[in-house]
Amino acid sequence: AMLRLRLLTWDVKDTLLRLRQPVGESYAAEARAHGVQVQPEALSQSFQEAYGAQSRRFPNYGRGQGLSSKQWWVSIVKLTFRLSGVYEDGVLTLMAEKLYRDFCSARNWEVLPGASETLSWCCQRGFRMGVISNFDNRLENILSHCNLRHHFEFVLTSEDVGFAKPDRRIFEKALCLGGVPPEQVAHVGDSYTQDYRAARAVGMHSFLLQAAGEGEEPEVPPEHVLPTLTHLLALIEK
Fold first, then answer.
1. Which one of 43, 165, 170, 225 counts the least CB within 10 Å of its CB?
2. Splitting the chain (238 residues) into consecutive groups of 10 residues, what average pLDDT does each group show?
3. What pairing do the DSSP bridges indicate for beta strands 185-189 and 17-19?
4. Between the CA of residue 108 and those of 27, 41, 85, 142, 232, what are the distances in Å?
5. CATH annotation of 7-16+112-234
6. Do the strands 109-111 and 17-19 form a parallel or antiparallel pair, or are they unpaired?
7. pLDDT per position as a tens digit, 59-117
């Protein structure tokens, strides 16, 4: 039977948008602009380390610990460069501020194949839509720059809400904003834990975006898996 859905909620990173190039490439280019040579691979590795340490110490952009997400990110950028052997404080601050701004623009993000078409199709069919994303408060601007913001009634970020997926409270907030019971809502995302399973835990439907051959999750029935976003259309036709 066709699902009777009224509201669709969407993850963003690696579902609708992705980085145009690896983080290390962006950081290396910024370093070069300041006359500093660092290998992109080294920076990518340092970034993973810095991001992991910061996330463990200050979860969800330091939201509960008095940090702004900008301070949170600036610390990560500086630590990334320090771990790669760049120590000059003035340059670190300039690069961190610039990269924080750059990652808010369409320069560093691109729309995934099929995303714009799928969102337009869903709007034309009369589905209401919103975003549920573990992102900082730059997301509204990023979606606007990438020409996707107009599709959504609301954009919920973990920084704004104070809870990150898979916490049920961020999904409950979306249901509350939408004013729709969970059985009339489907969530679309690329993470089994944070998107697929978390949405189902609050009684929503969900679909897992997963390219063919990417470690299939045994608990996900094939009819809930989207090899591409355009596969969604056949499953939710009104």
1. 225
2. 85 97 97 97 98 98 95 98 97 97 92 96 96 97 97 98 98 97 97 97 97 71 93 83
3. unpaired
4. 11, 18, 24, 10, 26
5. 3.40.50.1000
6. antiparallel
7. 999 999 999 999 999 999 999 999 999 999 999 999 999 999 999 988 899 999 999 99
Token pair for 87:
């120590």
Predicted TM-score (pTM) of the model is 0.94
Give the pair of three-digit tokens for residue 31. Answer: 């370093």
| Domain boundaries of the chain, sorted by first residue | 7-16+112-234, 20-107
Q: What six digits make up the tokens of 216?
A: 């299939």
At 154, the amino acid letter reads: F
Tokens of 94: 């300039």
Cα–Cα dist 193/197, whole Å: 5
Q: Which CATH superfamily includes the segment(s) 20-107? A: Haloacid dehalogenase-like hydrolase (1.10.150.720)
Q: Which amino acid appears at position 74 of this protein? A: V
* Separation between Cα atoms, residue 55 and residue 58, nearest integer Å: 5
Q: Which two tokens stand for residue 147?
A: 């020409």
